[in-house]
Amino acid sequence: MERFQAEDRDGLRACLEALRVGEAGALLASEARLLDGTRCLRLQARASGAGGAERRVSGLFIDVSATRPEAARLTRLAEAARVIAWEMDLASGYTRCSPNAARIWGFHEGPGSAYFERVHPEDRVMARPQNETGVGDEREYAREYRVVAVTGEERWLHSRGDVVCDAQGRPVKLLGVSLDVTDLKRAERAAVELGERLERAQQAARLGTWEWDTLTGAATWSDGIYDLLGVPRRAFAPDTEKWKQFILLEDLESVMTRVGEALERGGEFNFEYRVRRADGELRWVGAIGRVDRGPHGRGARMLGINIDVTERREIAEELRRSERQFRSMFESAAVGMAQADTRSGRLVAVNAALCELSGYTREELLGMTYIELTHPDDRSVSLAERQSLLLGERDHASYEKRYLRKDGGVRWVLVSVGLVRDEEGRPWRATAIVTDLTELKRSEQALREAQERERACLEHLPVGVWFLNAEGRITYGNRAGQEIWGGARYVGPEEFGVYKGWWHGTGRRLAPEDWGAARAVRRGESSLNEVIDIEAFDGVRKTMLNSAVPVRDAAGAVQGAVIFTQDVTAWKEAERRLRESESTLRSFYESSPLLMGLVDLAADDSEIVHVYDNGATERLLGLPRGGTVGRGAREFGTTEEVLARWIRHYRLSESTGQPAQFDYCDVRGGGGAIWLSCVVAHIGPSGNGRSRFSYVAQDVTARKQMELELIEAQAALRRHAARLERTVEERTAELRAANEQMETFVYSVAHDLRGPLRAVTGFSQLLIEDHGARLDESGRHMLARMQGAAEFMDRLVLDLLAFGRTAQAEMELGPVPVARAWEAAWFQCAAEAERTGARVEVVGAPLPQVRGHESTLGQMLANLLGNALKFTKPGERPELRFRAEEKGDRVRLWVEDRGIGIAPEQHERVFRVFERLHGARYSGTGVGLAIVRKGAERMGGTVGVESRVGEGSRFWIELPRV
Amino acid sequence: MSVVNSFRVLLAEDNEDDVFLMRQAVRKAGVALDLHAVPDGEEALAYLRGAGDYANRALHPLPDALLLDLNMPRLNGFEVLEILRRDPAWNSLPIYVLSASNLPADMRRTQELHANAYIVKPIRVDELATFAAALHLWLGVTVGAARATRPLNR
Predict the structure, then answer these.
(1) Chain B partners within 8 Å of A761 (Cβ)
(2) In this predicted model, what pLDDT tens digit does every residue of A107-128 receive, in sequence order?
(3) Chain B: nearest CA to A874, how far in angstroms?
(4) DSSP letters of A152-216?
(5) Domains along chain B?
(6) Interface predicted TM-score of the whole assembly (ipTM), two decimals
(7) Are B101 and A762 an interchain contact pair (Cβ–Cβ within 8 Å)?
């Protein structure tokens, strides 16, 4: 390499370098002069193999000194002029460039068409020589075109060439030079751009263009910049440092940062900052521009426009502020606000008031449509309004509707809807302002209700109320009024004749102008409670109280009238009845036989003054009729004692509030003393401290006499009773004595009467037994008869004693075991039973207890038992049965035999004393069954017999069970 | 046996017929009852106390039992009962009331005065004989046993 001249080495090296790193198969050539300058060698080499270590470059040097004698000079010339010499074979397009091309453009000539591939695509067609086909008359080649360097950089080339012809005069080559005019072109374009910007800047106020070359630090700007800064134009040369001095200190750092960023990043920039103008005013400046990078990435050019954006910023600030205000207003507004999408109806923005109003949260509302929020009954209204808005009929609508709150509550709202349209004028958003009308509605309703109440009041007023207007026409009649009249006729005064009325007193018919209503309207006259008989529209006749009052305005002019009517038919009727009743009562009082009247009693009881009397005093007491009125009681001969009595009872009724009653004897009448039964009652105070009382007095003389007689009779009765009592005592004592005598008698009978009988029987027996042999049969028979008679008499005495005892003796009743009574009975009869060989059966052990007297019951059973043993059929042994039958709370004791029986008609007789059915055959005293019956009676029991002749008897005793 | 079974019975009875009939009944019964009759209550007490003529016990020996009529002059049977039952000397003497009365009041009263038994006088002599036999039998059981323990010649 050292063998070549120094200025050629780079070319050679570049060629080799290109081979080393270039495409495989590339053929490159480079010429270099030897150091001695004698020869020029041409290196032609080809690259092969892949890149890196595998790259092989093979080539050869050709001595071209002979063929290119001026080559070296040419090269040097080109080198100096920064001109690239070139040679183009027209047939092949092969172009050879001078070695400086690599340095200037970054590449060497390529093979054939390769050169034009370097040309900018837009310029290729233009760059090709037209006569390359060998045909054409172009003798000179001149073009300006861009080539794209290996680095991608565009370079402008100005190429000029001459056609070289061969011996036959046919063009074969172009031989020319290319000048790199990139810088020139760039400067030229910049100038054009700058001019345009300047012009624009000058056209618009507060706009300045500027340019800053970072490489050179050179800055240019238009006059607008001076205007922006508020300094005279061209007061100083454009200078970035000068410019920085105007930037507000706070903004400087950020401006420099933005500039640095723009330079580093390249492309367009846009930022704003504040400047302090020379006059001290603060202005906002917007810087917009582009960074153009310098060649080879070194340095850059900033082109920019500075615009005064103060106003815009202020507007924007204003807008922001107003937006903030609007938003805060939107949020804090007392009225509900919402924005809805017109297509879906969905709410896209809502404020707090709407949330409050609807009871939904913001999140809930934003998912809803405004229709959902609307009360179902009002949805059709909402939809109609929406339709009207969407059809473009209106842009605003206001209407009232109800919202359905989340909690189910209902709110009346006034909705003002405005439509917001997009750029194409299509409906986009609906904004709504929602005012809560609930309170208003409530008050409206309250007002309405109040009016209705008022009207209802009128309607329910029991008094008829009629309104008349200024012309006297009836405009209103309430229910009561219409009831009175059986309807209403809304007529003027000239037609008042349809209302038929007669003056109550005279019966004269009312002319239309007679009506109070007509007088009130026409003459401003008030009339009160005129009584008028009317005939209602339904034909019913009534009596009416009519009042008419004119209604005047502030100036006193009659504006109408109010009429009050009252149906007093019933009152009038009642009045009539009352009058009748009063007279009836009066006549009733005055025809009454009772003494009736009213008196006033002085507070100190000093006097009784008659206020009214019904005239009975005249009849009863001979006092002057009616003449008592206004006179004191003492004037009629009332004694002080009687007076005191009256007063005492008046006061009594006053203090108890009850009528007081008393009787007294009045001796004032001519017919002797009469008894009066009086009832007085306190009525009330009657003035002057006096109290008024009513009195009613009745002549009870007859009753009193009867009472006296009764008392006398009672006394007589008492005397009689006393006598009777004494008699009873006497009788009782006699009876007791008799009883005692009886007892003595019985004792004597028991003890003494039987003694002689015993003697008779005893001696008779002994006589028969001991001396019977000395008597004949007849004598013995008579002795036996004597003995038998005495025995019978003894039995009779014993039985009578027993009966007497049963009937009379004191008998203490108590529980008696039947078994024991039966044993006692059996004990008495056992001997007889044994003698007769009787068969005795006791059924139903254990026997119950009865209430009775044990020894008496024993005797009774013994008597029955004895009968059963006795009254047997001839030749038969007695068969008997004893049993107890329980019948509820009583016990029936049966003694049954199979004996001769008793005829039914005799059943009652057998129980009588001394009643005997049989003769000597069946001996008996006739007392036994009487004792049974008496005993049962004494013990609260009964006896009976069931029997038939020949079939036996069944006697029973029924006693209370224990 | 017959000696041992002889009993002395004091009969207080005012009715001589009854005394006669009683003796006939004892005779008819054929029992060894030694009857000593007194006509009233005072006499009965005198006999028992050995007063007057009755002091001679050979003639008027102490009885084994007293047959007492109720209806008697001077002292009736009730009074005699009452006096004897209050006297420790006689309150163990068997006293059988023999009365014509069948009044329960009389029976109850003698029972209350601690009579040993009450017998209504039978109207027939044979019945009275039956009674005498029964009395003898009874005294044999009650008095005889006691006397067997005593010396015969007391």
Answers:
(1) 123-125
(2) 554 444 567 777 888 887 777 7
(3) 26
(4) S-EEEEEEEEEEEE-TTS-EEEEEEEEEE-HHHHHHHHHHHHHHHHHHHHHHSTTEEEEEEETTT
(5) 7-147 (3.40.50.2300)
(6) 0.76
(7) no
